[in-house]
Specification:
The protein is of the alpha+beta class. The protein folds into three domains: 318 residues, Beta-lactamase, CATH 3.40.710; 84 residues, Peptidoglycan synthesis regulatory factor (PBP3), Domain 2; 25 residues. Helices cover 30% and strands 19% of the residues. The protein contains nine helices and 17 strands. The strands form five sheets. A six-stranded antiparallel β-sheet has the order 12-15-16-17-14-13. β13 and β14 form a beta hairpin. α2 packs across α5, α3 packs across α4 and α4 crosses α5. The radius of gyration is 37 Å and the shape is elongated.
């Protein structure tokens, strides 16, 4: 009987219904981050070249030292061996920047550097003097920097940067000299560097770079101010970010262009943030080398005193500025927002946008049968772990006949998980259908649940009845087994009793 009671208890536990105490909450929302301080923002998925988030992405903004990315690109177009090619400064190197608090590496007249050193000084440290030296060296045979700026503008046109106009190689901006661009144009430049100039992209991912001492020249340590890639930046470090450039300019504001990919083979993004509030608490921009590191002794061993004084204005008769006279000056271009006393907001905004993209967006294959696209984790039930989602039925007619569906991509956006009740047909996200050759005009359709998160009342009651019926059958079987067991025991005892009586009667008859 004890065994029967134990079996009955187990059956009762087995058939208890699994109730859910979770409250219903608002269904999926595709809200994107808001409250960004940057004037212009452009976040693009590189697998589909789709703009995922934008804010004033076509608005003119000042380039500031971001123009040096284009300058670096033009130099690498022409210089095949930067590490072995030398460039020399002259009196024109300091036009427009002498005596100003701008990032530089304190280049002096008639100093020689490798092109690679000058490129690192530009890409990592936004060195205006390094940009000017390169503009002189790769402009034309006369060393005219205006010819170099013309090459920059031609390259911008080749890349489709139709709203960009450079006036200087360094990106110098003041009351009369302004280079303008847009967040989307800056994305085009960054994408081209990422896909076609690996040497520049890798350069932008360095934390620092040391310009070696030679002859009478001193060694300088150039530091990358992109806090997303520097572990020493603390809370601003972002593990998935790489490259490509950050500037902090009192005129152009704080600007950031960077790349992020969470896992190999997963979605990757380029983010551009322009004209954010200028962070006055930053290290003074002219100190792009390590302020705590002493200058190394010149390689020649001679005693050479370093001068921290600003180089004097250019000699009489030198060009007034490193500007392309054909570039328009627009008074409508926005100046930087007011300085702030806080750390740069662009890094916090970049982390917010990247996290939002990684949490809500995925790249999926277009289903030939318009079936399941993705499975979304579900935490609102102990019995169901995920909700299958697919395209709305209207999406079937959006892919032209004859299109190879294996080449069609879906850029899906949904919550990373669902916790509330979902019914079949409910919208749980959205998807952009990316057809090869028509990437600029994707069609957005709904992602809908292909199943209920819980059964209907009828099926739930039926399931419960079946479970109860099964439990009763098991219980009846157990009872029959127990009854059969006891009947067998009684029969065995009766047989043993008959055998004992038979043996006793036989023994008695032999005694007689």
């Amino acid at each position: 009987m004890k065994k029967a009671a134990l079996v009955f208890l187990c059956v009762l536990v087995f058939i208890l219904p699994l109730g859910s105490c979770s409250q219903k909450e608002e269904l999926y929302r595709a809200d994107s981050p808001d409250g960004l301080k940057s004037t212009a923002v452009c976040l693009v998925n590189l697998e589909t070249n789709q703009v995922i988030y934008e804010k004033n992405s076509g608005k003119y903004c000042l380039t500031g030292a971001l123009a040096q990315l284009m300058a670096a690109l033009v130099v690498t177009d022409e210089c095949l061996n930067p590490a072995q090619t030398m460039a020399e400064s002259n009196q024109f190197t300091f036009n427009g920047i002498a005596g100003r608090a701008l990032p530089n590496v304190n280049i002096e007249n008639k100093e020689r550097y490798t092109v690679d050193e000058l490129l690192n000084a530009m890409v990592l440290g936004s060195a205006y003097d390094a940009a000017n030296v390169l503009a002189q060296s790769f402009g034309d045979s006369s060393g005219d920097p205006k010819a170099f700026v013309a090459k920059m503008n031609k390259k911008a046109g080749d890349l489709g940067m139709t709203n960009t106009q450079y006036t200087t190689a360094s990106g110098l901006c003041n009351e009369t000299i302004r280079s303008n661009t847009t967040a989307y144009d800056t994305y085009l430049l960054a994408r081209y560097i990422y896909e076609n100039r690996q040497v520049l992209f890798d350069m932008s991912n360095k934390v620092n770079y040391t310009i070696a001492a030679r002859e009478q020249q001193f060694s300088y340590k150039v530091t990358n101010k992109n806090a997303l890639i520097d572990a020493a930046s603390g809370e601003y470090k972002y593990d998935y970010a790489k490259g490509i450039k950050f500037i902090s300019d009192s005129v152009a504001g704080d600007c950031l262009v960077t790349f992020a990919q969470k896992e190999e083979g997963g979605p990757s993004y380029i983010l551009v943030l322009l004209s954010a509030p200028y962070s006055s608490s930053e290290i003074p921009p002219q100190n792009i080398y390590d302020p705590n590191a002493e200058k190394e002794t010149p390689a020649s061993g001679e005693d050479a005193e370093s001068s921290s004084e600003a180089i004097s204005q250019e000699d009489e008769g030198a060009p007034a500025a490193f500007a392309a006279s054909s570039a328009p000056v627009s008074s409508s271009l926005p100046l930087s927002p007011a300085p702030t006393d806080s750390a740069p907001s662009v890094f916090a905004e970049a982390k917010t946008l990247f996290d939002w993209a990684f949490d809500t967006i995925s790249i999926e294959k277009y289903p030939e049968d318009s079936g399941i696209v993705k499975a979304i984790p579900f935490s609102g039930s102990a019995s169901k772990k995920e909700i299958r989602a697919g395209l709305d039925v209207s999406a079937k007619s959006l892919v032209p006949g004859g299109t190879d569906t294996n080449s069609v991509k879906l850029l899906c956006q949904s919550k990373s998980s669902l916790s509330q009740e979902v019914k079949k047909g409910d919208i749980v996200g959205s998807a952009k259908i990316i057809i090869p050759g028509d990437e600029k005009a994707p069609t957005t359709v709904n992602l809908v649940a292909l199943e209920n998160s819980s059964e209907s009342k009828f099926f739930a009651a039926l399931k419960q009845a079946l479970l109860v019926g099964l439990a009763l059958l098991i219980l009846a079987f157990c009872v029959m087994v127990v009854i059969r067991f006891f009947n067998l025991q009684k029969a065995r005892k009766r047989r043993e009793a008959r055998r004992r009586r038979s043996r006793a009667a036989a023994d008695k008859s032999r005694l007689k």
